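Why does residue order matter? Because the sequence determines the fold. Keep that principle in mind as you read this record.
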Amino acid sequence: MPEAETTEPERRDEAQETAPAAEPDEAPYAPPSSSKPEDDATAPARSTSGEVQPIGSGPPPEDTIIELRDLHKSFGDLDVLNGASLSVERGTSAVVMGGSGAGKSVLLKHVVKLLTPDAGEPWVKGQRVDEMTGEELDDLRLSIGYLFQGGALFDSMSVEENMNFFLKRHSALSKGERQDRIEETLSWVNLVDTAPKYPAELSGGQQKRIGLARAIILQPEILLYDEPTTGLDPVSVRTVSDLIVRLRDERGITSVAITHDLLCAEIITDRAHFIYEGEILESGTLKELKHSDHPTIRNFFGN
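Structure:
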């Protein structure tokens, strides 16, 4: 994502990297317009193809919004990605699972060119991301929201200021229009009353929801999540996960989430990808992965 300007000294505080535990009595947000997600054992998958096109074949099909083809990435002598490939259909929710050090975060960073592959082709919205520069790359990044593991809210800014920070720099909205957008977005995550509060005054679950609200403030087409529910209690996990589902169903946003939280995965997954030692071992529904015969995947799910 393009870096925001930081001209005011007081706004150079480090973003929060960790969130306090959520309050046990935090009420779940259950919007009347949304239904409870079905259990993955009975819900049909929204996408079952997921076929990755070969290297050199040009843009993927129009309904494939993200396609990573045979990505390789090393850092010195450490090989992190060893031919990882996956595709994500527009308007679906994909999950990347795997153990620590398997290459999950490195894979995700190629979607916004935070990293460039040593070999392979990262395609997003029909464009080769690794070949993009300048305004073209900035425009792509502005169409992608990113929810960081710790929320990454600015300590010295109120919730409203955190939201307004990106609108002032990356939109042509007037002051009144920005205020309306902030109120609308905070209302969507059911946290309008937190606008004047600072991150330290929020529970872990609230911080994640504010982080999610900030990630969608520019109305992106794609959302990337790095462990969106880590450190949260089960009630907050379901609250955040239900919001991710609503973004898909009500706004058509495509999601790619890194998670090892099985409750979150059960709620949000359309298609799951399991990565091990830099390769995607298997892709399919979460139910299919849970019943995989591969020993590494079986061990991950405790089978």
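The longest strand covers residues 64-75.
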